[in-house]
Amino acid sequence: MNDTLPALADQVRAQIAPMTGQFAQAARHNTQRVLDAFARRRVSESHFAGTTGYGYDDAGRDALDAVYAELMGTEDALVRIQFVNGTHAIACALFGALSPGDVLLSAMGAPYDTLGGVIGLGGEPAFGSLAHYGVGFHQVEPSPDGGPDWDGLTAALRTCQPAAVFVQRSRGYSTRRPLSVSDIGQLTALVRRDCPRAAVVVDNCYGEFVAEREPGHAGADLIAGSLIKNPGGGIAVGGGYIAGREDLIEKISYRMTSPGIGGECGLMFGQTRSMLQGLFMAPKVVNGAAKGAALCGRVFENLGFEVCPGAGETRSDIIEAVKLNSPEAVIAFCEGIQAAAPIDSHVRPTPCEMPGYDDPVIMAAGAFIQGSSIELSADAPIREPYIVYFQGGLTYEHSKFGVIKALQALYDKNLISI
User: Between 223 and which of 204, 260, 311, 339 could a Cys-Cys bridge form, CB atoms 3.0 to 4.6 Å apart?
Assistant: First the structure.
């Protein structure tokens, strides 16, 4: 390894100190919130036992739902191992909030790639998509500064009269900035003013516990995410959550299982303990991941690359976007991250076609839990302007090592100069 590369990471420690201090404060605050929620819901060892068969009267499952609802600032929640990923949880939320003939408005441009099939975008709508069931769709592009286009949203709300407004907190594979909880609160207030019956549905993936509040505290009607991202703390082996208004959660539970059954049934397959333990660990783990993302951003910014968030900008999720300007650099970066992984470090990631994506995608993720992006990982679509998305790291030290290995891979291919 080039001896100067670790020094590059060490040199930015003082530069990111103001940000890391904010992350530490959020971790302390959120740890206290988690402990308070566990105490108020009387979480106990008996909740780990689980049930069999239909899963009736599963006290652990009910306690998990109640804890999530409190932490997310909502009336109710569904936290289930049966949600296969974040897209699945978000899809259930949308189907619960919308009926045939309704209109869905996306407030920040095109949703994340994998939601295109859920909505029915691009060509003939897929069977079972929202479009297949007669739900219309409209989107408002972000403003030039990457935030909400307030005038465009006002016009769309008054014209479309949507039944639901979709808000993606993170940037996905776009170039816009992620939304803060304050942004979401302002957007929710706008919806309440111009279209009071519309439900505000937030894709909260990658944003949980980065700040001291969640979108539910800012008035969002539904928020959804994956447990192999932030709230699982690197311990939950799968699943997702939806938290929100009680009436909407009931409708969503019918979509999750069947009408008349809802959330009353469903085994947790012995995962209640890991889901609760992961939630307990999540504020500390997210702190390390956010600190690692800040380190990554500052190191590459110092090397002349365009990054988002930049130095001094408020962080609303754990993702750092680095514009590398060439497919070769994106691939090399991901190879470095894979080489830093505890699992499958010998594997070389390559771009390939993946379900739900229009472009070849490269993913580096040598994780203990397959696909876990709270663990150190990086991914990117192979398309201009060739941005790689760095996230995760169960510890700051691992995130830092990943940055160094990514630098090494770029250096070895003469793609950066030191």
Answer: 204
- What average pLDDT score do residues 283-293 get? 97
Return d(Cα 61, Cα 263) in angstroms, integer. Answer: 10
Nearest to 72 by CA among 37, 119, 109: 37
Q: Which of 84, 99, 56, 85 is nearest to 252 (CA)?
A: 99
pLDDT at 1: 67
Burial tier of 272 (Cβ tally within 10 Å: 0-12, 13-18, 19+):
buried
Identify the CATH assignment for 4-28+280-412 out of 3.90.1150.10, 3.40.50.80, 3.90.1150.60, 1.20.1260.10: 3.90.1150.60
Three-state secondary structure of 79-107 = EECCCCCHHHHHHHHHHHHCCCCCEEEEC
Read off the pLDDT of each residue in 154-178 and give the average, rounded to a whole number.
Answer: 94
Residues 6 or more apart whose Cβ sits within 8 Å of residue 116: 110, 122, 356
Give the CATH number of domain 48-269. Answer: 3.40.640.10
* CATH 3.90.1150.60 domain locations along the chain: 4-28+280-412
Beta bridge partner(s), residue 321: 308, 389
The residue-averaged pLDDT of 29-38 equals 98
Phi, psi of 194 (to 5 degrees): -100, -15
Q: How many Å is the maximal CA-CA distance in the chain? A: 64
Average pLDDT in the chain? 95
Phi first, then psi, for residue 3 (nearest 5°) are: -65, -20
Render pLDDT for 361-413 as a digit per residue (tens, 0 to 9). 999 999 999 999 999 999 999 999 999 999 999 999 999 999 999 999 999 99
Please give the Cα distance from 227 to 241 (Å, whole number): 7
How much is the pLDDT for 418? Answer: 79
What lies within 8 Å, CB to CB, of 273 at 6+ separation is 48, 60
| Alpha helix stretches (DSSP H) within 211-325 | 246-256, 272-302
Question: How much is the pLDDT for 240?
Answer: 98
Round to whole Å and give the CA distance between 399 and 336: 12
CB burial readout 296-306, b (16+ within 10 A) else e: bbbbbbeeebe
